[in-house]
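User: Modeling request: complex.
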Amino acid sequence: MLYDIFIDPFVQMYDMPDFFLQVLWEGFVAGILYALIALGFVLIFKASGVFNFAQGIMVVFAGLTLVGLNENGVPAYLALILTIGVMGVLAYGVERVVMRPLVNQPDIILLMATIGLTYFLVGFGEFVFGGEPKQMITEQLGLPTGSTAFEIGERGLVILQHIDIAAAVIAVLMVAALGIFFNKTRIGRALRAVADDHQAALSVGISLNQIWAIVWFAAGLVALATGIMWGARSDVSFALEIVAFKALPVLILGGFTSIPGAIVGGLIIGFGEKIGELYWGGLVGGGIESWLAYIIALVFLLFRPQGLFGERIIERI
Amino acid sequence: MFYREAGQFKTSYKADQALMPILQDRVGLAVILIIAFAVIPATANDFFLTSIMIPFLVFSLAAIGLNILTGFCGQLSLGTGAFMGVGAYAAYKLTSIFPDANVIVMVLLSGVFSAAIGAVFGLPSLRIKGLYLAVTTLAAQFFLEWCFIRIPWLYNYNASGAIEVPHREVFGIVASGAEATPLARYFIVLGITVFIALLMANVLRGRIGRSWMMIRDMDIAAELMGIRPLRTKLMAFAVSSYICGVAGAMMVFFWLNAAEPSSYSIRLSFQILFMVILGGLGSLSGAFMGAAFIWILPVILKFVPGLMGIDLAAETIEHATFMIVGALIIFFLIVEPHGFARLWAIAKQKLRVWPFPY
Amino acid sequence: MNAIVKEKAVAPEPAAETAKREVLLKVDNVSLSFGGVKAITDISFDIQKGEIRAIIGPNGAGKTSMLNVINGFYHPQEGTITWQGKVRRKMKPYEAASNGIARTFQNVALFKGMTTLDNIMSGRSLKMHRNFFWQLLWHGPAANEEIEHRKKVEEIIDFLEIQAIRKTPVGKLPYGLQKRVELGRALAMEPDLLLLDEPMAGMNLEEKEDMSRFIVDVNQEFGTTIALIEHDMGVVMDLSDRVVVLDYGKKIADGPPEEVQANQDVIDAYLGVSH
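Assistant: Request completed. Predicted assembly structure:
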């Protein structure tokens, strides 16, 4: 038993390096996708202090809109532009209907409102486009679909899907763009001010409404990119909702306000989950992917309650 | 005008500390209890009992359980569904191990198991606060769900992977299983719910309830006043999980007859959380109001189009229900973030001063 | 301002007498830092039984940190604290509370969702013992215990003249009354040592007079030892028996009010002299 837990998995890793590398790659890709969802959370949390539970659903919603439009005869690229427009309308609507009336309410109320939004979007998306799973229009969007096999050593083989590579590249570009946006622009500074204190930001003449609409739109774009990447790997359906919850442990690891934190957290969860499942999962009957991420986050939390990149909390009174 | 406490003087602290110091409230409660125990059983049909009243009471009890933890002790939990599941599976195992025991006692006992598990998952709450705690309870939710699937012993190695409620009689009346009458189930569910709600009302007005609220309102100050944070929070976790566990056991034993792991999924957790928030955090009566709203609204929505002569696919209605419930949640949060309980309190205040505005 | 407070407040006992009293709490060479930032450096002083001890100093001098150290919320890196003759090991805040140290806070830290009555009742938590199962039952022992403590609480409510707001949620009260409720909550613990962190901050003249009167009454009627932080010099000089002055985390003076008032370092610290 002890051998199975502590030695055997490592022996396997050494014996079959190609399989191990493949697992690592899978973990990496999963991690990137988790990180992208978490990124949307971080954007909104940074700018409004709202924990946006609907981010996961926005991913699915964006993907569904894109595919749904295409199914109804809209060319792929036009559908993409229209979907961006839909996300803009959604951002404006959320700001107008949900955020503005709830300004200065306690966090839990805002959290609840975004869960309400989640329900609404699930209902709305299925109402309009139907509930059955859909295929992502990867090829029509000009995204690569092939794969390349690399030989490792004499008998090993690692297969990389091109779409996964594209996902990684897009993630990196998006993070870089957001970093510049937050730190170098006037709006970015306003965003950080709003995140710190709504009322104080208002008092120096920052328009909360404008900032929130912008940030929800940015989160919507991130959601769309994530939706496309994710949809290309599996079907587009609201079953992805469960996977979207994984963003929470990612955020816990990275801290709610740190963009690099979201990336690193996503990767840790992605790697940890795949390695855990494939090397240790079999010992308890498999399927531990569904909860391992939370346990990893929990263990981290016990040692660092503020997350990996959060500042140490000094409690004052 | 009708709701006035003028002239009702309290001459002892005992009278002042009564659960409902105002006469009109007591009359109101008595009327509700009479309706629940006499009028509904005498008049309602089976459909009303099984599809509306029994689930409503089960959810009310679960909402009370979550309210203890989130509303009174301030610890956010997203694992309610799993804790209810623990109760259900525990009750199922207990009734199969002790086939001759009273099924009601077994249901009440099953909560003990979910209390123990709830307390274990409450341990990190000493160091982890707020939203961060949500991840702990999510861990509980997904881990326990996994256990319900992967540990065949829990469902007696059934091929279907589901638990099916056995036929049990209490004092010669069929209490559970497919043959149990809706009326018998209704009385059991009503009795347990009212009983636990009363006990909780007692706890909440005393020392322990106060210590929970101290932790909720200002944990640091509470600690400086001699409250042991871990002990107090664990107690809230245990009590809350006990109640949720009993509710979960009632859910399968007296309502659904059979359950599978997906019955206790994260959806259920959210459903209960909605009930608590819409009803009002930190209010027992709010738990009932929230449960009524969240459960009964979709049932009504299901039948409205049919009554209006519009023929819609079941799927479409389900999607529309999601949309409407989501929108209504946002709407009510905007109107009154403190839930129905606060709306009710405001209404009472208006009644007191009526016909004057202040 | 000074004069009015003097009229109202009962004159404290002469300093010479208090010097002979038994030492209740002794702080020796305590240093506290957060990361690299030193909040308190090598401070020693004592608090004697029955006195009103003031801790003063400019903003950021480390006064509140000092109180936090005394009631176990912060743990100093160096130095010892002797409480009632025993050297204290690292203790948790709730242990300090059960040892008889109560406090109020600079920014009111009441339980906002509870009524005035419940807030003050919460101060009795440590003295109530009926367990969970009695609480479930309520009728009988748990209710009797509740009533017994309710009587005590009502005495405090009478003393602080807040009968009218008994059943009001504290979140709705004006600031001055909240401070008073907070004092009541600390008093309900029947502490040996009462720490008051700026009890008069943000109050108007009348409220300050009332609060001063309550503090003196608590000290004289109940014999409670009080350590207080306050910025209003008139109040400090009138109320306190002895004053300790902090600046930049260091102690710069300690003694009876008149002496401290004349101390050159203290004058410099308050008026600002280039360091």
